[in-house]
Structures are given as structure tokens and as C-alpha cells.
């Protein structure tokens, strides 16, 4: 299954790698799985934020990004 995915290199600063590694250990995941989980969480957050901004009357993406 993992061979279905494209290899992507990721070079985080050492401090960030240590934090992600500690979180992966705490959650009993591999480093890769922890990074994927974090990216999926972030993507869901962005989508939710977009929908909330679009639902607000009078707001536009450009006016929100300039704040």
C-alpha cells in the first residue's frame, strides 16, 4: 500500500523533528504517520476556516487575508 504514494522529502529543523518524534512516540505512531496525521488535521482546519469565512456576510477571502 505505501508504494502507491509518491516519495516526498521533508527536512524539518532538528527541534521540530524532535517534537514530532516525541509526539509520534506518545501516540504510538511512526514518524511518517504522525506527520501525515498532522497534515491531514491542518488541511481539515483550513477547510473548516474557509467555510466559516465564506459563511460570514460581507467577508471576502482578500479582506480576511489582509487582517
Keywords, separated by commas or semicolons:
67 residues, mainly alpha
Please describe what this structure looks like:
The chain is mainly α and 67 residues long. Helices cover 64% and strands 0% of the residues. It contains three helices and no strands. It has helices spanning 14-26, 31-55, 61-65. It is elongated, with a radius of gyration of 17 Å. 1% of the residues are buried.
In short, what is this structure?
It contains 3 helices and no strands. The chain has helices at residues 14-26, 31-55, 61-65.
Topology, element by element:
Elements: H1 14-26, H2 31-55, H3 61-65
Helix pairs in contact: 1-2
- Rg measurement, Å: 17 Å
Instruction: Give the termini distance in whole angstroms.
Output: 43 Å
Overall form? elongated
Record field, number of beta strands: 0
Mean pLDDT: 86
Order of helices and strands: HHH
Number of H- or I-type helical stretches: 3
Beta-strand content bin: under 5%
Largest sheet: none
Uncertain runs with pLDDT below 50, 5 residues or more?
none
What share of the residues lie within helices?
55-70%
Computed structural class: mainly alpha
Amino acid at each position: 500500500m505505501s508504494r502507491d504514494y509518491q516519495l516526498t522529502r521533508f527536512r524539518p529543523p532538528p527541534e521540530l523533528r524532535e517534537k514530532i518524534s516525541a509526539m509520534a512516540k506518545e501516540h504510538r505512531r511512526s514518524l511518517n504517520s504522525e506527520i501525515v496525521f498532522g497534515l491531514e488535521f491542518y488541511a481539515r482546519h483550513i477547510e473548516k476556516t474557509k467555510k466559516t469565512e465564506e459563511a460570514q456576510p460581507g467577508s471576502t477571502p482578500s479582506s480576511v487575508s489582509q487582517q
